[in-house]
Amino acid sequence: MTTHISVCTSYWRVLPLLFTLLLTPELTYSCDVCGCANGGSYFGMMPESHRAMAGVRYQYLHFNTHPTSQVLRTEETFRITELYGRFFPVQRVQVLAFLPYRFDEQVTTSEVKQQQGFGDATVLASYNVLNSFMDSDESRRFNHTLLVGGGIKLPTGRFRYDTENPLEVANANFQPGTGSTDFITNAFYTLTKDQWGLALNLSRKFNTTNSQGYRFGNQWYGTAELYRTFLLSNLSLVPHLGVYAEHSAHGSQGHKLLTETGGNLVNGTAGATLFARHWMLGITAQRPLAQNLSGGHVVARSRALVQVAWLF
């Protein structure tokens, strides 16, 4: 009799939980949030702005979804290896290109799901509308550069979002790509005085609807970083400190606005870049200062970026 009562008690404790999982599918759906496949771009510190470069960088990002729930809690980890380059096809025109390869992992309370593949390629072109180094032979106390332009993000990454397939991650953001062709406008501004510098970047991303009827929300993202150059024999060391901010509007599927998507994120950034004659090595760490992602259902953790490039 005692055993029977114990089993019945456990049954009635579990029953409300089963009803919760069956009657609230929106909770598992609300993981779609700014960042990840649709995240804003952190360009990192790229001084020596007059030189072309080709390199590779590695990014590590980590998120917790429903962190206070013992049932719905998940952890998403994104490891992104990215080929990138900066070129000057004609005078005053700068072209940036990025091609990521992603290793993504989602850990739930019952299983681990992993996937990998190429992400979405991005190409940006900017015109140097202001450059006090190039525009005058006079020595200046302060020097300025301003590049304005835009570009395109191509759907080179796979997007297969199927909420009915138990083998797939029911999360539009947990995909190598977004499945859409998106458009970007941006501006890069640099102010320097002696060995000090201030680098600002502001970008606006306009997303389109993909073939599955899903549309990620438009985004704003930008950085402000203060840096100083230290000369060490044949090397230059450039430590930097700043902030990265991102805002993502709500996404939509069909004609339905997904109010559980989008959000705001502000990260503090710190790092250092080492320059040799033809090589650059940099590392940057970010830590959230303020955030409200997916209505509070998603929490961004610290992230890191390491990059190495050849200058020519």
Short structural summary:
With 312 residues, this protein is mainly β. The protein contains 3 helices and 18 strands. Mean pLDDT is 84; it is low at 1-35.
Topology (elements, then pairings):
Layout: H1 2-23, H2 25-29, E1 53-65, E2 74-87, E3 93-107, E4 112-118, E5 122-131, H3 132-135, E6 143-153, E7 182-193, E8 196-206, E9 214-215, E10 219-228, E11 230-232, E12 235-248, E13 251-253, E14 256-258, E15 263-275, E16 279-293, E17 298-300, E18 303-311
Antiparallel strand pairs: 1-2, 1-17, 1-18, 2-3, 3-4, 3-5, 5-6, 6-7, 7-8, 8-10, 9-13, 10-12, 11-12, 12-15, 13-14, 15-16, 16-18
Task: Tell me what you see in this structure.
This protein is mainly β and 312 residues long. The chain has one domain: Lipocalin, CATH 2.40.128.130. It has three helices and 18 strands. The chain has a twelve-stranded antiparallel β-barrel. A hairpin with a 4-residue loop joins strand 3 and strand 4. The longest helix is centred in the N-terminal third of the chain and has 22 residues. It is globular, with a radius of gyration of 23 Å. 36% of the residues are buried.
